[in-house]
Here is the input.
Amino acid sequence: MTSNPQKPSFKTDRSRLFKDRFAQFGITSGGVMVLVALLLIFFYLLYVVQPIFESAKVEKRMDIQLTQDKKYLGVGVEEQTEIAYLLGSRGSVDYYQIKGESAGKLLDTLDVELDGNVTAFAESAPFLGQYAFGLDNGQVQLVKPMFTVSFPGNQRVLTPRLSYPLNAKQLIVDEQGQAIRKFAFSHFEDKTAVVAQTADKRVIFASFVAEENMFTGEVEWAVERTELDIDGRVDELLISPDTSRTFVRSANQVYVFDSRYASEVELFQLLAANEENANLVDMNLLAGANSLMLANDNGEVSQWFEVNTDDGRQFAKIRSFETPKSKQVKLFSEYYRRTFFTTNENGQLGLYYTTSEAHLWQGKITDKAVQKFAVAPRANAALLLADDTLTVVELHNEHPEVTWSALWQEVWYEGYPEPAYTWQSTSASDDFESKFSLVPISFGTIKAALYAMLFAVPIALASAIYTAYFMSSELRRVVKPTVEIMEALPTVILGFLAGLWLAPLIETHLPAVVALLVLLPIAMIATAFGWTKLPAKVRHVVPEGWHSILLIPVVLIVGWISFAMSAGIESWLFGGNVRQYLTNELGLTFDQRNSLVVGIAMGFAVIPTIFSIAEDAVFSVPKHLSNGSLALGATQWQTLVRVVLLTASPGIFSAIMMGLGRAVGETMIVLMATGNTPIMDWSIFQGMRTLAANIAVEMPESEVGSSHYRILFLAAFVLFIFTFVFNTVAEFVRQQLREKYSSM
Amino acid sequence: MVKQWFKSGSPWIWMTGGAVSISLISVIGLLAMIAWKGLSFFWPSQVVEMHLDGSVAKQTVIGEIYDREMVPKSRLEAAGFDLSGYNSEQIERLLVKTGNREYVELDFRWVLSTDIKSQSTPAELAVFERSKNGNFYGYVARVLEDGKVVTDQPIERLHELVERAVDLNDEALDLQNSEIGHINYELERLRLKEKSYQLDNDLTEEKLAELNARRAELREDYKVFEKRLFELRKQAKRDQVVVRDMRGEEVTLPLYQVLDVWFPNDMGFFAKVGHYLVQISKFVSDDPREANTEGGVFPAIFGTVFMVMLMAVIVTPFGVIAAIYLHEYAAKNAVTKMIRIAVINLAGVPSIVYGVFGLGFFVYMLGGSIDELFYPEAAPSPVFGTPGVIWSALTLAILTLPVVIVSTEEGLSRIPSSVRHGSLALGATQAETLWRIIVPMASPAIMTGLILAVARAAGEVAPLMLVGVVKMAPTLPLDGNFPYIHLDRKFMHLGFHIYDVGFQSPNVEAARPLVYATAFLLVTVIIALNITAIGIRNHLREKFRSLEH
Here is the structure.
């Protein structure tokens, strides 16, 4: 109506063209964006996972030149890595700023209250942050450098101070007042103990218990002293934080004392611990104080911890690490993780993680011999003191416990009798070591999928073959959607039925399940045989391709019989209780929610997937192929096996792949129908934990950015890749098949 | 003969036929079982009074028979029952729901049929549905109205009084949720406003005074409502009913805890049907009680529907645009083919993987950034940086995107190219052809895709457990407080409800029928959606088949 009839114009309206361009641009960019968003899943998972495989990094932050006249015994750093402190040989503590504008500045010097001259110095376990001076009068003074936080003018200011964990009381270790040469101490919760060597070569173990005087209200120390019997020289002393173990290194031997009870400190074990052709030079305890680390002068570092043996618990050498060759290797541990550091006289630093046997980082930091070393509480920085230079380095070492081998190989964890695959991600305690082996949960995934496939594949394929090849077409039109509708059934419902209905049912009717397996095929064949014996008149009433309808009552009756006689079989063969029989006679553990239940429930979820694709594949085999075979005299069954199935086999393969992909990633059924214990056992009567269920259980509680969080992402990534590859192969095979058919 | 028969392969054909029978039986059996167990729960079953003696001490048990099973005698004897007087191999055992949870140890108990000496169903037996402690079974001894015994037709009066108490309770709850809830919400908003002024260093005297004035106003209102609330509660507590329970003791039940009372043994068929329908409507419209093990599932239905609708709004445009791009604009080459396969395969990636992605990307990354930018005053408690309904909808949108794309593409490819060519030949641009011809013709396919996506999303639980679903949400994501739609809130979901009640609740036996009912509800919705989708698809196929010729 709007166009002018007199002047026909063949020029398209510009706005229409613009709209067309605009639509093309909009749809293309929109479409590409959506597809990119889908790709994003892949990359995002990778992005979260990737840091766990990054190697550790060490970067030098700064060097501080110290005043020459002081000799320092110990160093330390505060949690925000803003201030470092150095403990001097005269009992002074120097605080240096190591971050921000005034980095390198000496902030303050505080003096420790001491009643004598310093003759020895010792550090506590790193997480306690305590230091102690041994004096020439046989006493020990504990001190803890601390900081007061204040916010003048909305700015955070740290003021250094000294705190005395024992209220400035000095511990009288040697009653004879001999100077202390070497010592170690621990003051943790209500336990306080010191082990010291005095000037006259006695080794004294002293345990202190605070007691309040009833009259004066003053705290007094109840002391228990024991002299330890050591042959030869004493090189080093150590006490575990809970004071239960005391270690004395004498040349290449380590005396381990059981010092749980102060009144009876006895020798627990004597270790000849040096490597071949090497001598011990240092020892230290790992975080958690279960492991003793020993360094040799050839650079070898070995880890020892207690394992159960025939003679009770004994320290055993678990593993050793090659560190750069040097004569003076020194060992340091972290606050909570099982990382340890080595330094040596060549100025080299090494980072290692014990459990994962990871060599995280090695390198040279300074040219001089490293004398003192300290790690920051969050393990994100470290201090090295070499001569008169204090070097601050930044550590990037977020996930030392995760390595490819720790995830997939047997790992010997502290306290375990042997290397094992273990998944145990969380615990209440701070120094608990998480055990991240993906093997048990991957095993569980495969086990669940396998049992499900064992149940699903025969039924689904047989149904697909019958429906596609033998069934009458009007019946097929009803049967196919009925089976396929199951695919839409929420798996939470299947899981709920499996857990609350099927599991107890199977538990009480286990013989019925076995009987069904045996009786059903027999009954079917018997029915089939009986059918041939029926008069032809009767047989012709039922149209061809209705076998399955005829068999429905048979299956129902056999099912009913099996369940009805279950109790009978049970009391006849198994003394009335199959569970007890399994446990006592066969030694099998029976979980109520076991693989059998999962197999059936998940098999049920997988059947429609396999059925649908396999049925399509068999049905679309060109009719002239089967007709030709039949015309040549082959029977229906021969045609099916030799011609139809052979042609459709790629499609059937792809159906099984799709089913497997679904079974591997299924979450709710496994979550609800098993006990979710990460065990490795093929037994059909036990449960499992799968990757997917593991994610569902643990993800909400895992801390963002932690190793645990990233490993769960890794599990998701593995699932993603696994199913994606399987499905792609299946889809590719299917498309090839489609082309093949169309050319036939 | 038999050998010949085996050789012909016909037994194997029967075997494959048998597999179909097994599949059919399990499919239909499963659906029938869910339907039966889910629906029969609401039927007012008979309440039986049994007198027991034998292996247990002499006593009376009143309750509903929930289940019965046969147990081998040997097992019972091993458990310490003396059954020497009985010859049969198996002995029947009844599961009786006795209710009265606060007076007996267990509200479910197994009773051996051999112990039942006599059994009856007296018409006077009453069932009280209570807001706390589950059902109560017993005989009504007397009705107390304001402390006085009702003598004139006490049962009719009891019904009236129960109704009155229920109404008063409803009113009180309504007041608490809407008016008082609104005041609390406003107060919280004022607190955040003050904090945000503080953060901007903009908290002047006037502003503070204004905020405080508003606060005082709200507190005044609060006092009024609170008074009214206490008044309502006091009134609701007025009446009691005294019931004689199975121990023979009289128990006084305050009527404000009674939700309903009925006499199932005295009901005719139609009365039962009426009661049945009322119970079903209550199930659909009520809030859950007693840690979700009783009451209705309304918040779960609402949460599911709301989340799925939100998802549909997100997924439809993106899915359709991607499909149109793939089918109409993208070059027909190997890359497009690969993309297509990849999209199809994404539908097979386990849903939990999408959940992990949603948690990491949407909740922590996107939500965390939104909080930092727009809600600094709420810190440290997160607003969007925590699982919520919007993140659930987005996660499920990504999950169902392949479904919509595949279905739409299928619809597009079914449109004969002659239609496209015709339109182009008449001078329409490609955009016009798309908009006027192709998309309308493909709209049923888009619809199918959307329905399938909705059906899949409604049944998905695993990813939601990570990105927003909770067992008990105090408020719905939609309410009368500005801005009315709260996308950051957590929500309840039918599927998760099944998981939670079935597996995390302390009293699984009591909750089980409710779980079946919920499962039935969910299955009905999903199967109906799927059948609709299949119907539309088949209809579409027929339509285009006729177009081609």
Notes: The first strand of chain A starts at residue 57 and ends at 65. The longest helix of chain A spans residues 707-743. Chain A is about 40% helix and 25% strand. The domain at 452-743 of chain A is CATH 1.10.3720 (MetI-like fold).
